[in-house]
């Protein structure tokens, strides 16, 4: 029998019109080029195995007529049968498959693993799918029918690396059938190549330290063998490309040595190289960013060194785009949002400037404050305000001559002319200084006393007041309550604390002198009260009595009416007495709570009171909306209290056309009162470029800021529309942005390519992950309290905390390298390991991981964790019989007893500093099969969940949606299909 035809006679990829991608390697017939017979029907049901190579094979049965036209022989379970020419559903014919001559011994494949099954649509002609086979670890299994019309490769065996790459922290993942890509991409375009799977019917090798049973673990929250059937596009030629005409920065994560494999016409996306934060965001890269440069700021969620020069550091002020269009029409063409995120009290030191009784220098027209962008003219006698272009006189006391370069001679002594962020002491007034106060409201009941809660409360307050006296207000007040409200007076000339009692229906402040006292002046009386509080209440109320929590809080707020401050309430029982009685129910009223109060559950200095914010823009721009749990009055933002993680998002619009190649300026000014009663004015400035070239807008966009803005939109809209509608809206916004880039900046590329701009590679996974967070889950298991808690976080957190909240980081600490946990040799930070993708296939059963979401840190110990790691971290050999509470105590008791333990402690400390957590933040330990274990597994957002698709499927459908938008042929609300959105 003649051999296969020459390569040039094989059907080419461009000739294919439809069908499904085929396996790259196929089992060949045992007789050279002849086809083996199909499986024979057994008289008792079932099928007989195909004959071995040394058996005589009867002639094959006649071709069977297919329901959609064409004839096709049924294939064996371990080989593919090339069908004849078939009519494609959309027209055209597929080329006949040419068999290979290489021979393999037939093998019976093992039973399929209990993984998710990707089921393709039924509107194509297809042959029966092959039997599932064992895949290498960390590989997602998709059972898909073979593709018709593709040539096969000869003599190729795939090569899998035996050890994982140390710098990636994850193993390559097998992609689903249905993704293809083009050959080598040109410069500036990102291509994602993939090593081919092993031949059908051949065993594949295991990688790294992964266990075979990983494949058989069903995804959390789903039954085994759950199938998801969606309307998938025809993506046989799908590939992902980067943006054209833009600098494509080298990424060491994507330049690692890959197994050398020959090129195949059946190119599919390598899931390990699909854009993911774990491969693009490198936490070990030492970023040094000068704010006065023309570069985009580094990602918000990584370690970085920033230099404040003329422009505020991105931790204070961050824009969605750093090159803005010259007109609103051009901005609408790009579909890019234009907004600025400001975190005014971010935990970074800034200079304090005191101009005396006259206060800071301001523009006489727009009232903008002096900033580095103002220019001095006429020898320094005038300055030109860059916000309104008005020429102002320089006050005599502020005058300084200018040098030939335009700088003042006192430039080095003026922080407001050098820095982008600074703070002024407010102008002195004749108003009396009102020092804020803290009031502690404490419940007295049998439950709080018998369980030791009351003792813990007073001991903690005593410790805080002694150790953090300089960081808290000078004055404090104490209120206790049960069925009545008790005001305590600690006037320093008293011998004993005095108590005044008011009934639940009388809300007022019975003590005017001695209620709010300086702790150090009345320390003896206050400490005596703390030490003997249980003696003052010998007959506390039972939990079933009416506790007047509402009256106590209202009385405390009246005491702070003139001076301001904060109320800290400690309550364990549901308030049953009026005012403020709350019956037991599961009502959705939390969304109506006043959000503009720096909502948080923890004490977080620094803290500002009575904040008034004004945002000014240069000519042609204006602020149209503000987000972030704020209240607006007369064009100003009002906030009762503001913390270091409170972020205000300001949406900018055009009121005039800007000059191309010019600069635009935005100034954020906040007047507030410190906890010590001092009035300050904090200033932040940002400068943006103005251009008219479309690709520059996408090149200089900031993904973290845009995703944060989308989170603001979602948190706002979910109250009125529900999760289903919000999920669809967020997907539509992303599609509009990507389709605009595809249409205006990459129109010359083939429609079979999914083109993602360099700055927006991670937009799909961030949007998908955000839609899988608790506020947007379509599940009755999510409590209203949890939904609204996350809603408040998404509405006010800064970008550097929104991103890890949406896409948590999972750091493997069971295979640390020599540099991990040690200081960087050149930079000022600790080297931490590369985090892995949020997929169950990346979680090794013998691993130990640090899981952090910007708010909490978990040490996630897997069921079969390595014994050496367990000994170094916990002094145990197995997790059996050791729950999370026990291993937590064991970890703390070691306290860096060995080098490995010290490395892990250093990594934890680096993450705490990076996220701005309290230095005393405790790590929560999680052992497999405990409650928190299932919670962490539900946050592996790249996997398919009960109410949403997997990342790969989402990318696939994103590609189809972009094609529909470009062709204006979208026939349905496909964004609802993307996420299986249903009613709330």
TrEMBL record:
Residues 435-588 form the Sec23/Sec24 trunk domain. Keywords: Protein transport, Transport. InterPro entries: ADF-H/Gelsolin-like_dom_sf, Beta-sandwich_Sec23_24, Gelsolin-like_dom_sf, Sec23/24_helical_dom, Sec23/24_helical_dom_sf, Sec23/24_trunk_dom, SEC23_SEC24_subfamily, vWFA_dom_sf. Pfam families: Sec23_BS (PF08033), Sec23_helical (PF04815), Sec23_trunk (PF04811), zf-Sec23_Sec24 (PF04810). Residues 266-277 have a biased composition (Polar residues). GO terms for molecular function: SNARE binding; zinc ion binding. Residues 10-41, 65-76, 87-106, 132-190, 199-237, 246-265 have a biased composition (Low complexity). One of its GO terms (cellular component) is COPII vesicle coat. Residues 360-398 form the Zinc finger Sec23/Sec24-type domain. Residues 702-803 form the Sec23/Sec24 helical domain. SUPFAM superfamilies: beta-sandwich domain of Sec23/24, C-terminal, gelsolin-like domain of Sec23/24, Helical domain of Sec23/24, vWA-like, Zn-finger domain of Sec23/24. One of its GO terms (biological process) is COPII-coated vesicle cargo loading. Residues 609-690 form the Sec23/Sec24 beta-sandwich domain. Residues 1-277 are annotated as: Disordered. PANTHER family: SEC24-RELATED PROTEIN, SECRETORY 24CD, ISOFORM C. Belongs to the SEC23/SEC24 family. SEC24 subfamily. This is Putative transport protein. It comes from Heterostelium pallidum (strain ATCC 26659 / Pp 5 / PN500) (Cellular slime mold). The gene is sec24l.
């Amino acid at each position: 029998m003649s051999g296969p035809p020459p390569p040039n006679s094989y059907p080419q990829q461009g000739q294919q019109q439809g069908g499904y991608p085929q396996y790259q390697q196929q089992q060949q017939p045992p007789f050279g080029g002849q086809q083996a017979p199909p499986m024979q029907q057994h008289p008792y049901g079932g099928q007989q195995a195909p004959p071995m190579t040394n058996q005589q094979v009867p002639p094959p049965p006649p071709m069977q007529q297919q329901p959609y036209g064409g004839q096709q022989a049924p294939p064996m379970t371990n080989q593919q049968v090339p069908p004849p020419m078939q009519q494609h559903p959309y027209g055209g014919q597929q080329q006949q498959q040419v068999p290979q001559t290489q021979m393999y011994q037939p093998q019976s494949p093992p039973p399929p693993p209990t993984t998710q099954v990707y089921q393709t649509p039924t509107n194509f002609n297809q042959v029966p799918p092959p039997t599932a086979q064992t895949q290498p670890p960390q590989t997602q299994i998709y059972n898909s029918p073979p593709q018709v019309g593709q040539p096969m490769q000869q003599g190729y065996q795939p090569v899998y690396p035996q050890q994982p790459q140390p710098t990636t922290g994850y193993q390559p993942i097998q992609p689903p059938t249905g993704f293809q890509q083009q050959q080598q991409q040109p410069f500036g375009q990102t291509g994602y190549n993939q090593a081919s799977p092993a031949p059908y019917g051949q065993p594949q090798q295991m990688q790294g330290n992964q266990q075979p049973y990983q494949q058989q673990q069903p995804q959390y929250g789903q039954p085994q063998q759950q199938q998801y059937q969606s309307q998938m596009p025809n993506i046989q030629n799908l590939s992902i490309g980067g943006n054209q005409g833009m600098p494509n920065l080298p990424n060491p994560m994507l330049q690692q040595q890959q197994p050398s494999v020959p090129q195949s016409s059946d190119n599919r996306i390598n899931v390990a190289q699909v854009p993911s934060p774990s491969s693009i965001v490198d936490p070990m890269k030492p970023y040094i960013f000068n704010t006065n440069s023309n570069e985009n700021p580094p990602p918000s969620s990584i370690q970085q060194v920033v230099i404040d020069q003329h422009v505020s550091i991105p931790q204070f002020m961050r824009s969605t785009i750093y090159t803005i269009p010259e007109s609103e029409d051009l901005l609408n063409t790009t579909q890019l949002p234009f907004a600025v995120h400001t975190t005014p009290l971010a935990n970074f030191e800034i200079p304090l400037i005191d101009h005396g009784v006259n206060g800071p220098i301001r523009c006489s027209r727009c009232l903008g404050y002096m900033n580095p962008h103002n220019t001095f003219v006429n020898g320094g006698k005038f300055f030109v305000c860059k916000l309104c272009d008005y020429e102002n006189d320089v006050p005599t006391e502020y005058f300084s001559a200018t040098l030939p370069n335009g700088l003042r001679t006192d430039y080095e002594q003026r922080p407001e002319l050098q820095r982008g962020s600074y703070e002024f002491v407010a102008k002195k007034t004749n108003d009396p200084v009102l020092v804020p106060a803290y009031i502690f409201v404490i419940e007295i009941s049998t439950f709080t006393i018998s369980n030791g809660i009351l003792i813990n409360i007073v001991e903690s307050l005593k410790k805080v007041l002694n150790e953090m006296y300089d960081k808290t207000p000078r004055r404090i007040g104490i209120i206790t309550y049960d069925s009545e409200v008790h005001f305590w007076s600690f006037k320093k000339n008293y011998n004993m604390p005095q108590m005044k009692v008011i009934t639940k229906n009388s809300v007022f402040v019975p003590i005017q002198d001695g209620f709010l006292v300086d702790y150090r002046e009345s320390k003896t009386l206050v400490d005596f009260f703390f030490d003997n509080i249980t003696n003052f209440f010998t007959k506390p109320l039972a939990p079933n009595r009416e506790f007047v929590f509402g009256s106590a809080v209202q009385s405390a707020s009246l005491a702070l009416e003139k001076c301001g401050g904060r109320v800290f309430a400690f309550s364990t029982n549901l308030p049953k007495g009026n005012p403020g009685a709350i019956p037991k129910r599961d009502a959705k009223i939390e969304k109506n709570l006043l959000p503009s109060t720096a909502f948080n559950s923890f004490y977080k200095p620094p803290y500002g009171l009575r904040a008034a914010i004004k945002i000014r823009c240069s000519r042609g721009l204006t602020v149209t909306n503000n987000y972030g749990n704020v209240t607006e009055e007369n064009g100003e933002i009002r906030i009762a209290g503001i913390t270091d993680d409170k972020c205000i998002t300001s949406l900018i619009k055009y009121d005039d056309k800007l000059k191309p190649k010019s600069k635009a300026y935005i100034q954020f000014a906040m007047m507030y009162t410190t906890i010590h009663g001092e009035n300050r004015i904090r200033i932040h400035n940002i400068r943006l470029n103005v251009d008219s070239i479309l690709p520059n807008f996408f090149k200089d966009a900031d993904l973290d800021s845009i995703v944060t803005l989308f989170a603001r939109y979602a948190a706002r809209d979910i109250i009125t529309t529900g999760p289903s509608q919000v999920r669809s809206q967020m997907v539509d916004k992303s599609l509009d942005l990507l389709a605009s880039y595809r249409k205006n900046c990459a129109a010359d590329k083939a429609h079979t390519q999914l083109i993602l701009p360099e700055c927006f590679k991670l937009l799909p996974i961030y949007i998908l992950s955000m839609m899988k967070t608790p506020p947007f889950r379509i599940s009755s298991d999510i409590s209203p309290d949890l939904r609204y808690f996350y809603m408040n976080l998404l509405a006010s957190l800064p970008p550097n905390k929104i991103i890890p909240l949406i896409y948590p980081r999972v750091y493997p600490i069971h295979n640390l390298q020599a540099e991990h946990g040690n200081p960087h040799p050149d930079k000022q930070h600790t080297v931490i390991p590369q985090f892995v993708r949020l997929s169950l296939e990346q979680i090794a059963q013998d691993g130990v991981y640090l899981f952090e979401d910007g708010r909490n840190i978990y040490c996630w110990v897997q069921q079969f964790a390595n014994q050496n790691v367990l000994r170094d971290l916990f002094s145990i050999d197995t997790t059996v019989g050791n729950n999370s509470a026990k291993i937590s105590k064991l970890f703390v008791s070691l306290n860096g007893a060995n080098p490995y333990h010290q490395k892990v402690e250093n990594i934890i400390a680096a993450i705490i500093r990076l996220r701005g957590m309290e230095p005393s933040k405790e790590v929560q330990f999680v052992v497999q099969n405990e409650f928190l274990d299932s919670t962490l597994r539900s946050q592996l957002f790249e996997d398919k969940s009960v109410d949403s698709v997997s990342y790969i499927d989402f990318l696939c459908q994103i590609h189809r949606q972009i094609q529909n938008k470009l062709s204006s042929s979208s026939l349905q609300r496909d964004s609802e299909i993307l996420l299986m959105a249903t009613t709330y």
